[in-house]
């Protein structure tokens, strides 16, 4: 698995380099004054960016800017950028995927020092179910009943999967106070997972394709599926985690002024309203259409000790708490 993952990252970098050489990728400016920026993001916000980029290009700051876009599993995207994939702006699923780029010298140390702490979009983990909820799935305990198939991605490739894991763990461990109960729950949960795709968007495609009784998902992904005519409903658990997705400009951008202007636009009410229309919870107050329920037991990553602690404790590919659970199922954890 280590070799295959390395080849995948190498291939992604090679494809990006070929596209740049052909004029279809990378970051460039021509004699006409136009600038091309490279956006590298995790799998789910692609639909939102179609409208956001169009809106940005109508502003004075964005009128001469075009974009190349790359979407995929957050961990894979982060590793590809660290290995050489060109990016001017990154929008990833979770903070450790940006931290990797800080350690690689590609993102500034102070990327998260602003009022929003570098967070661009928010969501929560929900339980997606078949239309009408034929199995009456309402709680975390319902997901571990015998015969219930649950779809969730591989947490060693997908940022969305890590949020899912921590939502279930936090809910069943009293936010980490009872680690044994939380790990017992995860062991039972993953026994009911028949397939682990490498990204949240691929897991959604698996579920809407007919496999599984339930799917652990970003709230915005469930809303996206409904908006696109998929016959699914979703349940908001009483206890679940607040998802916070970071974004940053890279230090090696050939067009840092334009990249910074785009990042600033992403945090504006205009862009946040588009994110809301696509099911995301905004980072700003007062954004039109932001009518989302607040679960009674909503908790954050900080309630579990923060990403620095949690990422090592749970998701270290050799010694993390989830490794033994995955290895029993024959699922690879090496990157």
Descriptive account of the structure:
This protein is an alpha/beta fold. The chain folds into 2 domains: 2-120 and 245-277, D-Maltodextrin-Binding Protein, domain 2; 122-242 and 296-328, D-Maltodextrin-Binding Protein, domain 2 (3-Layer(aba) Sandwich), CATH 3.40.190.10. It has helices spanning 2-21, 46-56, 74-82, 95-103, 159-172, 179-191, 200-208, 219-227, 256-266, 269-277, 307-315, 321-328; strands spanning 28-29, 35-42, 65-72, 89-91, 119-130, 150-151, 214-218, 232-235, 242-249. Strands 1, 2, 3, 4, 5, 6, 7, 8 and 9 form a 9-stranded mixed beta sheet that branches. Helix 3 (74-82) runs parallel beside helix 4 (95-103), helix 5 (159-172) packs across helix 6 and helix 6 (179-191) runs parallel beside helix 12 (321-328). The longest helix is centred in the N-terminal third of the chain and has 20 residues, at 2-21. The protein starts with a helix and ends in a 7-residue tail after the last helix.
Would you identify the CATH H-level superfamily of the largest domain? Periplasmic binding protein-like II
Outline: globular
For the secondary structure, the number of strands is 9
User: What proportion strand?
Assistant: 15-25%
For the residues shown, what is the average pLDDT?
91
CATH architectural label of the largest domain: 3-Layer(aba) Sandwich
Derived from helix and strand composition plus strand pairing, the structural class reads: alpha/beta
* Count of spatially separate domains: 2
Helix content: 25-40%
Spatial separation of the terminal alpha carbons? 7 Å
- What's the assembly state of these chains? single chain
CATH class of the largest domain: Alpha Beta
Q: Tell me about the biggest sheet?
A: 9 strands, mixed
Pick out the low-confidence regions. 1-27
CATH topology tier name of the largest domain: D-Maltodextrin-Binding Protein, domain 2
Radius of gyration over all CA atoms, rounded = 20 Å
Element-level helix/strand string: HEEHEHEHEEHHHEHEEHHHH
Number of helices: 12
């Amino acid at each position: 698995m280590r070799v295959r993952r390395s080849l995948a990252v190498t291939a992604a970098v090679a494809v990006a380099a070929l596209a740049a050489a052909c004029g279809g990728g990378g970051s460039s400016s021509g004699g006409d004054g136009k600038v091309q920026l490279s956006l590298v993001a995790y799998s789910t916000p692609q639909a939102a960016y179609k409208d956001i980029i169009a809106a940005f290009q109508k502003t004075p700051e964005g009128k001469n800017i075009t974009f190349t876009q790359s979407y995929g599993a957050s961990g894979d995207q982060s590793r590809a950028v660290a290995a050489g994939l060109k990016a001017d702006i990154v929008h990833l699923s979770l903070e450790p995927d940006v931290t990797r780029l800080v350690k690689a010298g590609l993102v500034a140390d102070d990327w998260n020092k602003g009022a929003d702490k570098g967070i661009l979009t928010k969501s929560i983990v929900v339980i997606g179910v078949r239309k009408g909820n034929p199995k009456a799935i309402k709680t975390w305990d319902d997901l571990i009943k015998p015969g219930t198939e649950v779809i969730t991605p591989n947490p060693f490739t997908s940022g969305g999967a890590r949020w899912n894991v921590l939502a279930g763990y936090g809910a069943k461990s009293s936010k980490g106070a009872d680690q044994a109960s939380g790990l017992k729950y995860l062991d039972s949960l993953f026994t009911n997972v028949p397939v682990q795709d490498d990204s949240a968007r691929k897991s959604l495609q698996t579920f809407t394709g007919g496999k599984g009784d339930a799917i652990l998902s970003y709230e915005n992904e469930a809303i996206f599926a409904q908006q696109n005519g998929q016959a699914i409903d979703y349940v908001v658990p009483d206890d679940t985690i607040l998802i916070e997705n970071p974004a940053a400009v890279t230090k090696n951008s050939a067009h840092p002024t334009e990249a910074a202007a785009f990042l600033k636009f992403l945090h504006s009410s205009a862009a946040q309203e588009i994110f809301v229309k696509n099911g995301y919870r905004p980072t700003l107050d007062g954004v039109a259409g932001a009518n989302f329920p607040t679960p009674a037991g909503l908790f954050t990553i900080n309630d579990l000790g923060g990403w620095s602690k949690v990422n090592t404790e749970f998701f270290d590919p050799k010694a993390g708490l989830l490794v033994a659970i995955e290895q029993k199922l024959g699922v690879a954890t090496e990157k």
